[in-house]
Amino acid sequence: APDAALNDRVAQILYGAQPNGISVNGEGLVKAKPDVAQTTIAVDVTNPYPVAAQRDAATRMDKVIAKLKELGVAADDIKTNQYSLTPQYNYGQNKETPTLVGYRVVNSGAVTIKQLDKVGQILDAATTAGATSLQGVTFTIADPTSLQNQARAAAVKQARARADELAKAAGVSLGKVTSINESTSGATPQFAPTLA
Question: Considering the chain, what is the average pLDDT of its residues?
Answer without folding.
Answer: 84
